[in-house]
Amino acid sequence: MAQDAADAATFGNIRVLPAASPKYHLDFGIAEYKDFHLGQMAEFKEPEMKVTAEEMASARIPLRYRDYCAHMLIPLNKCRHRTMYMPWKCEEERHAYEECQYRDFMRRSKMLAQIKQGAQPSQN
Which PROSITE patterns match (predicted)? Predict the structure, then answer.
C-alpha cells in the first residue's frame, strides 16, 4: 500500500493509482514501457505540451481535445468564431490542426507497433 501511495499521480484534487502491470514511468519526456512477461524495455520520447492547462481552460477547449495539438486548436476555434464557422474560411488553421492530429496518430501507431513487436515471443 505504501508503494501504491508513492506511485500515485495527483491531478488537481484527484488521486490516481497506477495499474499493477504494465508499469509506465514518465520522466523528463521519456515514457518507458516495461513488459513484465518478457523483461524487455522500449523507450519513447513524449511530445511537449505547448499550452498549459490554464490556457486550455480559458480557451474553453473540451477535455477530449486537450492533447498535444491543443496549441493549434486554440487559434482555429478563434478563427471559427470570428468567421461564424464558414467552411471555406480558416483553411490554413484547420489544415495545420489536422496535420498535427495525423502526426500524433502516426507517432502513437509506431509506438504501439514497437511495443507489440517487442512483446511477441519468437516463433522459432
Answer: CHCH
Q: Which positions ≥6 away from 88 have C-beta within 8 Å?
A: none
Backbone angles phi, psi at 71, to 5 degrees: -65, -20
Task: Residue 33: count other Cβ atoms within 10 Å of its Cβ.
Answer: 19
- Asked if 41 and 32 touch (Cβ cutoff 8 Å), the reply is yes
> Does pTM surpass 0.90?
no
Q: What residue ranges do the domains of the chain occupy?
A: 1-46, 49-124
Q: How far apart are CA 14 and CA 96, in angstroms?
A: 33
pLDDT in tens, 82-122: 999 999 999 999 999 999 999 999 999 988 888 888 765 44
